[in-house]
Amino acid sequence: MGGRVAVVSGGGTGIGRAIAGRLLADGCRVVVVGRRTEVLRRAAAELGDGVVPVAADLTSPEEVARLAGEVGALGQVDVLVNNAGAIARRVASGDLAELAEAWRRDLDANLMTAVLLTSALTPLLARPGGRVVFISSTAAQRGGSGEYSGGPYAAAKAALHGWALGLARELGPDGVTVNVLAPGYVEDTEIFGERWSPEFHAAKVADTLVGRAGTPDDVAAAVSYLASPGAGYLTGQVIGLNGGAVLGR
Ligand SMILES: NC(=O)c1ccc[n+]([C@@H]2O[C@H](COP(=O)([O-])OP(=O)(O)OC[C@H]3O[C@@H](n4cnc5c(N)ncnc54)[C@H](OP(=O)(O)O)[C@@H]3O)[C@@H](O)[C@H]2O)c1
């Protein structure tokens, strides 16, 4: 993959950081994007030469436009991984204003980040050969539950699927592939924060057929294949990566 340029949103932590490291090992120059400059700088320094930190809030059209300008200076984009996301806290009260705000937070963090970044970088995608990957979740396939993967998070991730499939149709004739990867529970990331507990972990592991949690490296390995030149016939798919927690999809 010599000299290819990859952009990984949320590339400073968790799954995104592992994806950045894997694409770097595959020979890409990797732009890692997130809101926290220090986190990105640390990840870039630890991952090694070839990782370029660019801070931006991907819910902001202005910041995404500025980011696209910086990415464009590096040349065409060969690989775009829309990995940034978050799970907003569930709102229990009957207050509709609070409910609307909570839904918008999840839609912004999981859907609009990908919509804005992908739209801004689409003109820069390598044609042919560009690769676009969306990181979704099993929550989109089987519904969310509990505080960690409630309705708005599942709905926001599911919205990515429909949009990504249309994008695959649009970009396929140019030789660009677009796929959705839907991981199950992945440990060692920041997404659950203080809401993580040993009981939650055990329940998620018990849900799998292989009896373990997923790791960021599990996801990175799958992205490495989807991003590779050899994956040019694989497009328009939603691919589960969940230890068997969801079967057949
Ligand atoms: N861990 C799991 O069990 C699991 C399962 C299925 C799917 N996923 C998905 O995997 C992806 C990565 O999550 P993770 O588990 O690795 O959690 P994480 O460590 O919290 O990573 C999320 C990343 O997204 C970035 N981000 C969030 N909002 C952003 C914004 N507005 N603009 C720019 N960057 C933003 C964060 O950086 P900043 O805070 O610095 O902006 C952070 O680096 C997410 O889409 C998540 O939904 C995770």
Automatic annotation (TrEMBL):
Chain ranges of the Ketoreductase domain = 4-189
What GO annotations for molecular function exist for this entry? oxidoreductase activity
Q: Which Pfam families match?
A: adh_short_C2
Query: Gene3D superfamilies, alphabetically?
Result: NAD(P)-binding Rossmann-like Domain
Give the keywords, sorted: Oxidoreductase
Does the keyword section mention Kinase? no
The UniProt entry's sequence similarity note says: Belongs to the short-chain dehydrogenases/reductases (SDR) family.
Know the name of this protein?
Answer: 3-oxoacyl-[acyl-carrier protein] reductase
